[in-house]
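During the no-cost extension, the postdoctoral fellow (Dr. R.K.) reprocessed legacy sequence entries with the updated structure-token encoder. One reprocessed record is reproduced below for audit purposes.
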Amino acid sequence: RKGRPPLGEFGLRDAVRHARSSGFSGRIYALGGVTAALVERALSAGLDGVVVLGLLRDRAQVRQLAKMRAS
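Re-encoded structure tokens follow.
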């Protein structure tokens, strides 16, 4: 939520674990404040994907994301 600090990798893991153990079977995405450097960590935390709208305005981050995707 706007104005609140980010959950961080461990907070994301806990949130995903809680959602799954509660029977939630939908997809879970990171939304807001996602940078290229955080994409891999978010996915490794168990998220199904990330939304990178703001990231697309920064060419350096787009290049970094493309390199990660190619490897």
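The CA atoms of residues 35 and 57 lie 11 Å apart. The two ends are 32 Å apart (CA to CA). The remaining legacy entries will be reprocessed before the final report is submitted.
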